[in-house]
Amino acid sequence: MPFLSSDNATDTYDVLIVGSGAGGGQTAYTLTMDGARVLMLEAGRNYDPTRETPMFQTPEQAPLREDGTPDKPFGFYDATIDGGWKVPGEPYTQTRTDDAGRFDWWRTRMLGGRTNHWGRYSFRNGPYDFKPRTRDGLGFDWPISYDDMAPYYDKVEMLIGVYGSNEGLENTPDSSPDCLLPPPKPLVSDLLFADRGRKLGIPVVAGHRAVLTQPLDWKTNAAKLYPNNPTAQQLTADSMKKRAACIWATPCGRGCSIGANYQSTTVHLPPALASGKLDIVTEAMVYEVTLDKSGRANGVSYVDKKTGKHRQAKARIVVLAASSCESVRILLNSKSAKFPQGLANSSGKLGKYLMDTVGADLVGQVPLLEDLPPHNEDGASGGHVYSPWWLYKEHKSLGFARGYHIEFGGGRGMPGVDTGTHMEWLTHGSYGKKFKDEVRRYFGSFVYFSGRGEMIPNENSYCEIDPNTKDKFGIPVLRFHWQWSEHETRQAAHMQKTFAQVIDAMGGRVRGKAEADGAKAIAPGGSIIHEVGGAIMGADAKSSVTNAWCQTWDVDNLFLTDGAPFPSNADKNPTLTIMANAWRVSDHILARLRRKEV
Ligand SMILES: Cc1cc2nc3c(=O)[nH]c(=O)nc-3n(C[C@H](O)[C@H](O)[C@H](O)COP(=O)(O)OP(=O)(O)OC[C@H]3O[C@@H](n4cnc5c(N)ncnc54)[C@H](O)[C@@H]3O)c2cc1C
Ligand code: SF4
């Protein structure tokens, strides 16, 4: 009986995992494939994308024709349940609310977490990204290298399915042979971007996204992942067989009922549940890690949201994967006589060095793309091509550290209610037949550039417990402090300048203007939804919260497998690295269990 009520989750498990998203899902999969008995506690409700995903609904079937609202910021059909920038009854506070100084926090409360609706961009960190301080003296090195992570990137790509190509570019690692799926064909706008971008020296290559462009080779992949474990091989193969290839028609943000993209709920949890080794309690809001007399973790306390009762769950090892800030919150709230500043906080670094991605966007309109013959360009619902950072050799002259990649969008995707209104700057309020003709002319001629860059961790971007505010369960909430440095704002200005140059090279015009002031161009903290850090890993217990195994220095049977232990946030979107790292840490936990060290 894998889904349990809190009344039935009374055993002592090998491992207890908090959270079921990218980090929790991967941890549960890896541990159960090798026979560990796992209890997963998830604050959100149960969610099954194969039954619930509104994949085939059209905009006119939705209120406001699917436009965003405060409770559904990304539109009515977005897969998020009980979440968004605000979660009812679960506030957080900020010390500043202006764009430059605030941190916006996106959460969701559902099985699978944000993996049900994430963008699926899946890039590997490169060798430089693990040793950034060694290269430029800023931020922190990871206590591990790319070589430590590379085998796990291979495994995750084989398991979840990532399309892309190997290009041999600097700090943009190639995958091992047969790990990547073939990328989808470029759209017309992609081809134009590639041509003009290359003339400006900007590489434009196949995007990397966790979408199946063809069915997974279940036989080969499962055998490669588990050559000496026939049970895991069978469970993995059986689960892979159930996933269909993309049908190129529906927005991934609604979730995918045919399992063609990665969600924890269709990829990690089904084989883990089928193993019989995983029990899940949903609607279990964890607020504290509990300790035995010797100061080792022996479980957690949580609120059963169905009954309002406070419950305990027990395990030999506790893994927090509730998302970076939530895991930090649980630790900060786990105060005791031995740990008055919060658990695993003897360094005083818990909550510190919170990072997001540097983001800036620009839209252009390109006459060459007007009046194209009608054709379907829904494609893989995002990024067929992208530009990895290309200016590694010019860092000294740029005025900012590190770099960014470009996520590019264009094409004739299904029109929405706002397709015409977004053209107002070109149609100038025309109406009737003229307006219809103009909408037909301009439809598909827009190009969208999003820069996604690296933030350097700083002392002024962190979270702590707000002494005055509690959520509806009575749990103290987080208070965020945020500050960009000039490295980030100058990078955002560089993004704007670059995008304007590319739009110009495409023969197009910029909507509005490229913002030269980086402080105005940069998206608010947290708004790119790539938050990592807060419990960084390091080689030294005085300056970090965990060691290289994401095992807290203070409590040796307590681990973190979300983004909290990241000591840096490369321009590469973090989720593939969260999963690869969770697999690496889980292998370490399994080895300790086998050696009976816990
Ligand atoms: C719209 C959107 C687009 C994105 N696009 C990309 C992208 O293209 N590429 C990329 O790399 N990343 C992307 N991300 C970010 C990505 O979703 C996250 O990096 C990833 O999901 C983090 O995994 P996680 O396991 O740490 O957290 P989550 O996936 O958020 O899972 C955490 C889980 O823990 C549960 N939980 C929280 N608190 C508690 C508690 N106290 N007790 C019990 N359970 C708890 C939550 O309910 C949730 O289910 C995107 C995010 C969003 C929202
Ligand atoms: S575009 Fe493909 S992967 Fe995305 S939801 Fe549609 S079928 Fe699934």
Describe the structure.
54% of the residues are buried. The protein contains 17 helices and 16 strands. The chain has 598 residues and is of the alpha/beta class. Strands 1, 2, 5, 6, 7, 8 and 16 form a seven-stranded mixed sheet that branches. The longest helix is centred in the last third of the chain and has 20 residues, at 486-505. The protein has helices at residues 22-33, 49-52, 127-130, 132-136, 146-160, 188-199, 218-225, 230-241, 264-267, 269-274, 324-333, 395-398, 424-427, 432-442, 486-505, 518-521, 575-594; strands at residues 12-18, 38-42, 93-94, 205-206, 278-282, 284-291, 297-304, 310-320, 358-365, 385-387, 404-409, 446-453, 462-470, 476-481, 509-510, 558-560. The chain binds flavin-adenine dinucleotide and iron/sulfur cluster (SF4). Flavin-adenine dinucleotide is lined by residues 18-24, 41-44, 106, 109, 113-115, 117-121, 284-286, 321-323, 326, 330, 529-530, 562-563, 573-575, 578.
